[in-house]
Amino acid sequence: MKPISVMLVDDNPVFLRATTQFLEAHEDVVVVGTASRGDEALEQIEALKPQTILIDLAMPGLSGLATIPRLKHIMPETNIIALTVMNSEGFQQAALAAGADVFIPKATMRTHLLPTIRELAQGDRKRVSKTPSTTNVASTEPRRILIMEDDMHLRRLYSKALRTAGYKVHSAATIQEARALLADFRFDILLCDIQMGSDRGTDLLHEQIDDITTNGAQVIMVSGHSHYREACAEMGADFFLEKPVSVGTLVTLVNRLTATETATKIA
């Protein structure tokens, strides 16, 4: 039996690499191509002829929402799974209205993605839930945030502000503590200081980025030195904040990441 052919469309190269590795660890799935923009996907779809397309909704240029109906027009039998970190009813409805067969929040990919791809490949779309049954439950639970900061005052300041805003917050003063927490919990947001004592947060990011990205977490790197911005973007971080960071700015950014607004990524 031929493996299920899948195409990935996402502007995050780390996500593309991690998701390709995750899918191709299973013999019944093969990734036949990737695209980082909607227009690239439209150019490639007829040549690749994927059975299923995984597409991020928030991309620069032609967005996923604008790309989906065009993909369906070119290849109406191709299954389309909409992916996004913005887990909200509004995004679900918009994705399905655009023509997506299924909406899956990136935070639930590890448990829902493979079963959904396999069920869609069987040809009976009615059997597949438009959204995972746990999505509505997950969206009402407090989002979990990991703060990695060796400055005790800043760690407490960030933690208090985010807990007051309704988030479930864990904190780590060392890279070792952060590794232990990442092994025990799945986080929605990681706030990581670059310089943590004699260690660097970028080392942890480099070590864990594939798992972090596949789990749907977004990474905010923090430093008092702006020259780290480009390096953090290249390593797969989603955002960079330069110290001093006001708690108002931090809470606003986290709220945007966990709500329906589209935040601006690292320039």
Could you give a quick summary of the protein structure above?
The protein has helices at residues 13-24, 38-48, 64-74, 89-98, 109-121, 135-140, 152-164, 175-184, 201-214, 228-235, 247-258; strands at 4-9, 29-35, 52-56, 79-84, 102-105, 144-148, 168-172, 189-193, 195-196, 199-200, 218-223, 239-242. It has 267 residues and is α/β, with parallel strands linked by helices.
What are the key terms here?
single chain; 267 residues; alpha/beta; Rossmann fold; 2 domains; five-stranded parallel beta sheet; 11 helices; 12 strands; 45% helix; elongated
Rounded mean pLDDT is 84
Give the second-level CATH assignment, the architecture of the largest domain.
3-Layer(aba) Sandwich
Order of helices and strands: EHEHEHEHEHHEHEHEEEHEHEH
Largest sheet: 5 strands, parallel
* Amount of beta strand: 15-25%
Distance N terminus to C terminus?
44 Å
Number of strands: 12
Q: Briefly, what CATH class of the largest domain?
A: Alpha Beta
Number of domains: 2
Question: What does the radius of gyration come to?
Answer: 19 Å
What spatial form do the alpha-carbon principal axes imply?
A: elongated
* Number of helices, counting only DSSP H or I runs of 4 residues or more: 11
CATH superfamily of the largest domain: Response regulator
Query: If strands are numbered along the chain, what order do they take across the biggest sheet?
Result: 2-1-3-4-5
